[in-house]
Amino acid sequence: MKIKWSWVDSAAKRDKAARDILKAPVIGVDTEYDSFRYFREKLCLLQINSGTCSYIFDPLASLDISFLGEVFACGKTVKVIHAGDNDIRILKRDYDFSFNRIFDTHRAASLLGCRQLSLSALIRQFLAIDFEKQKKLQRSRWENRPLTEEQLHYAAQDTVFLIDLYRKLHADLDQAGLLEAAAAGFEDIASVSWHEKIINRQGYRHIQGFNSLTMEARERLKRLYLWRFNKGKNINRALFMIISDQELLQISRTGEPTLVSLITSAGLSQDKVHRYGSELLDILKERPST
Q1: Model's pTM, two decimal places?
Q2: Stretch 152-166: mean pLDDT, rounded?
Q3: Sequential DSSP letters for the chain
Q4: Which CATH architecture has domain 203-285?
């Protein structure tokens, strides 16, 4: 499938994209972010389709894209997204954008009674276009630069049919008398906001193997669990990538904590012991509060 897209990583490219986007009455919007490896989702790409081209903005290039604030807030420009509430949360968090006149194709199709709500399914159903994306690219390291042509093509695909899909869904909503209900739902999506993760302080009790621990080991696991959460928050790293649940469990069983025992008894890698060993030992040597 031939797709016209442009990689926007410089001020000159940004200005060219802005001229096209600012005059478009309807735009398609999508993002690529990494929520797997980071404590907080990391925005890696922002895709805007103007109707003639899919512009792929690089949020990691220190570009001033404040002009998009005018576009997103404008009550005349339709912003078409697909299940885009989390995209909106992240864009609000990172750029303090506000959003008006959102049209979410996922929400619209749900109101129309559709059961298959993936973007590819809706494109097949409403536009009669066979649309499939390569699943192997879904977990791409989107923060890595340079991105490949294959990755950029993949990123552009999600916005290519959004405008045509919007027009078809809007017409069907109108015919079904559902425009008012849809508009209320879209306003709810536009009003979402991002919130920091909070710890479930009883979460350590749900780690497999917890019931086999002694009371002292349970207390150690509790402290280790809290430490891992705060560590992930401070360094913006996914918790499982710091120390896994089962590693926490094994560490809590360590009777005589030393850097060596963290490797031999708890099974930590040398890299993890190098990164976190001293902190772990401090936690293990703490006396429980009474």
Answers
A1: 0.91
A2: 94
A3: ----EEEE-SHHHHHHHHHHHHT-SEEEEEEEEE-SS-SS-EEEEEEEE-SS-EEEE-GGGT---THHHHHHH-SSSEEEESS-HHHHHHHHHHH-----SEEEHHHHHHHTT-S--SHHHHHHHHH-------GGGTT--TTSSSPPHHHHHHHHHHHHTHHHHHHHHHHHHHHTT-HHHHHHHHHHHHT---------TTGGGGSTTGGGS-HHHHHHHHHHHHHHHHHHHHHT--HHHHS-HHHHHHHHT-SS--HHHHHHTT---HHHHHHHHHHHHHHHHPPPP-
A4: Orthogonal Bundle (1.10)
